[in-house]
Design goal:
Blueprint: H1 3-17, E1 19-21, H2 22-29, H3 33-45, E2 50-52, E3 55-57, H4 68-74
Antiparallel strand pairs: 1-3, 2-3
Helix pairs in contact: 1-3
Length: 75
């Protein structure tokens, strides 16, 4: 799968779920963990997402507050 297609799928999943898990992306994209990490690094350098332990989330402002359910899923 092309890098541009992988990055597009990552962003689609992220916009839907607000958080993506590295393991889920590996199986969804059927590629290696290293490849997914590189894609996430590139998307973060483009300021399209924020890397967190085990995955990535949409960047958010300090004004936004997650619900308790969102916090428990994230953590």
């Amino acid at each position: 799968m092309l890098k541009s297609k992988r990055k597009q799928l990552i962003m689609e999943k992220l916009s839907h779920d607000k958080f993506v898990n590295l393991e889920d992306l590996v199986s969804m994209l059927d590629t290696s963990e290293s490849t997914v990490r590189r894609d996430l690094d590139e998307l973060e350098s483009e300021r399209k997402l924020h890397r967190v332990h085990g995955g990535a989330e949409l960047p958010h402002s300090l004004q936004e507050e997650f619900t308790n359910q969102q916090k428990s899923i994230k953590n």
